[in-house]
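Q: what does this look like with IPE bound?
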Amino acid sequence: MDELTGLIPEKKPNHIAIIMDGNGRWAKNRGLPRLSGHRAGTENLRRTIRAFVEFGIPYLTIYAFSTENWERPSDEVEGLMHILEEVLDSELAELHQEGVRLKHIGRLERLEKGLREKVQQSVELTENNKRLTLCIAWNYGGRDEINCAIKQIIKDGVSPDDVTDKLVSSYLFTAGIPDPDLIIRTSGEMRISNFLIWQSSYAEWYVTPTLWPDFDREELLKALISYSNRDRRYGKISVCGEDVEKNAQ
Ligand code: IPE
Ligand code: IPE
Ligand code: MG
């Protein structure tokens, strides 16, 4: 039992993916422009990363910009790109020092050259860090990811007989990253919004009405406690061997 959190280590997720939703509503509730909500959301990300390090959760994926988010007004899109650039400028050194390994999932081609290079350099700088892997889903879409994987599988001349779950996973942007155990969505929407559609096949879901900028350490702890009470059966009868044997009789 973790003294600080009361969590049982074996019941702790290895990988949490978060759909950080509700920045716009958070700003609207305060009569502020949407970008203020995105800034508040970014501040909250900093606190969240700290909590992940504290709780010893080794993988965090954040959904920060989807392939559909390009369809928002151009000033919001530009503002979001600018925020990513600012965050990399101001936070990279500290993240690196704290042992955070940055990964990017999605497609960088559509980003401006300067931003694209900054993302690539951040990934390279931190590639050997071990404490926390932070995957930033930026210009990410689950369908786009699967399309890219299929194209590459065909280009590589893979035989149909060799197409397995493992092979497909190895062609995704998330290759080498374990599937998420828990997906948290803030702000109450009950939908996947094109996020990790392949990888989430057996992920547990936790949806909270709390808007992303207000999702704090206590909220994360609540999600972890909820997760620790789930019985992940993966289509079987029970994860507990005893029950399986009893039911099989
Ligand atoms: C999530 O907050 C951040 C991004 C999608 C970039 P939203 O901007 O979607 O906030 P709401 O859903 O409008 O409140
Ligand atoms: C999902 O949120 C994408 C991110 C959090 C980056 P959206 O706000 O874009 O999703 P919908 O439109 O409510 O489905
Ligand atoms: Mg939203």
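The radius of gyration is 19 Å. The chain has one domain: 9-248.
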